[in-house]
């Protein structure tokens, strides 16, 4: 008997196989003739840490940026009393390197960070030149940044325990007048980063009605025409040996407030072949105590539709 994944993958878009799509890839390429992508102003990453005592801790990192400030907020188990707030805007706050110590539910937490040499592109999240790592009762519970591994060897005692941690959810918030949204995502720990481009358009492409295109690695995986009528939907794609549900909701782009910004939501969630349900956000909580970790990416796109 064939496994569920192979059965589902027959009806899913195969991102790794260019022969499986009849759509043209040229629309996925960002060229000088295409609009500048919208601005990414916030990134929220949710990590699940499993300590050697089998205790689970959820760590939320929120990178934000606006015209006045830029910063990082770290919280644990959705407890606002444990929030660590750092300003990464050197004009307002010069201490971009240091340590924060706190306690939550009888657990000693230490946050080590250095953002003094961090390099940023257009978004609020640094791309390199930084580190952030967290210990729980001297056990390493989270490490991010290209400089982190080298620093942990210097700051921590030899033989320090390393907890298991995984990124289970990532939210990205975009705003602007552009109809182009560009990002990268890794859907499993062993997979490679994938380029994701979401484009709204159609009128300038010879179509009578607005359309939506979602591209992964320069391949169109979704092409929705007559978008004002098909403003909600879903599609399953097959990527890195995983089934990934892709769901879109652009209702507010058209029908919420004509004079104000409309908010669209695009969701990517990995699932096993045994799971026949599409996106359910509460499943993240249910998976908290399971060994198998699924990943979700949510893109919030705010735009004025003229």
Question: Could you explain the architecture of this structure?
Answer:
8% of the residues lie in helices and 46% in strands. It is mainly beta and 306 residues long. The protein folds into two domains: 4-38 and 176-303, no CATH class; 45-168, no CATH class. The strands form three sheets. A ten-stranded mixed β-sheet has the order 1-15-16-17-18-10-2-3-4-5. It has a four-stranded antiparallel β-sheet with strand order 6-7-8-9, with helices on one face. The chain has a four-stranded antiparallel β-sheet with strand order 11-12-13-14, with no helix packed on it. A hairpin with a 5-residue loop joins β2 and β3. It is elongated. Mean pLDDT is 79; it is low at 1-11, 16-26 and 279-289. InterPro entries: DUF868_pln (IPR008586). This is DUF868 domain-containing protein. It comes from Buddleja alternifolia.
Q: Based on helices, strands and strand pairing, what is the structural class?
A: mainly beta
Q: What is the string of helix and strand elements?
A: HEEEEEEEEEHEEEEEEEHEHE
| Share of residues in helices | under 10%
Task: Kindly state the number of beta strands.
Answer: 18
* Domain module tally: 2
Q: Strand percentage, roughly? A: over 45%
Q: How many helix segments?
A: 4
Largest sheet: 10 strands, mixed
> What low-confidence regions span 5 or more consecutive residues with pLDDT below 50?
1-11, 16-26, 279-289
Sheet with most strands: strand arrangement: 1-15-16-17-18-10-2-3-4-5
Overall spatial form: elongated
Q: What value does the average pLDDT take? A: 79
Cα end-to-end separation: 52 Å
Gyration radius from CA atoms, angstroms: 21 Å
């Amino acid at each position: 008997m064939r496994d569920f994944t192979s059965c589902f993958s027959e009806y899913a878009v195969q991102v790794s196989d260019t022969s499986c799509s009849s759509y043209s890839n040229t629309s996925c390429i960002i060229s000088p003739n295409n609009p500048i992508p919208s601005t990414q102003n916030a990134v929220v990453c949710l990590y699940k840490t499993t300590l050697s005592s089998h205790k689970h801790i959820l760590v939320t990192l929120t990178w934000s940026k606006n015209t006045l400030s830029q910063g990082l907020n770290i919280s644990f188990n959705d407890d606002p009393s444990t929030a660590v707030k750092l300003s990464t805007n050197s004009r307002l706050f010069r201490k971009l390197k240091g340590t924060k110590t706190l306690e939550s539910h009888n657990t000693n937490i230490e946050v080590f960070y250095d953002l003094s040499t961090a390099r940023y592109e257009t978004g609020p999240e640094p791309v390199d030149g930084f580190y952030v790592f967290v210990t729980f009762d001297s056990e390493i519970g989270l490490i991010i940044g290209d400089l982190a591994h080298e620093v942990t060897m210097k700051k921590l005692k030899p033989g320090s325990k390393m907890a298991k941690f995984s990124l289970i959810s990532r939210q990205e918030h975009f705003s602007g007048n552009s109809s182009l949204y560009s990002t990268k995502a890794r859907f499993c720990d062993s997979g490679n980063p994938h380029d994701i481009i979401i484009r709204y358009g159609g009128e300038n492409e010879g179509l009578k009605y607005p359309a939506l295109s979602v591209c992964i690695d320069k391949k169109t995986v979704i092409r929705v025409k007559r978008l004002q009528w098909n403003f909600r939907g879903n599609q399953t794609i097959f990527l890195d040996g995983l089934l990934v549900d892709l769901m879109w909701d652009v209702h507010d782009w058209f029908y919420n407030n004509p004079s104000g910004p409309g908010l669209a939501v695009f969701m990517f969630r990995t699932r096993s072949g045994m799971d026949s349900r599409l996106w359910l956000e509460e499943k993240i909580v249910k998976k908290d105590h399971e060994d198998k970790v699924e990943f979700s990416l949510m893109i919030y796109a705010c735009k004025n539709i003229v």
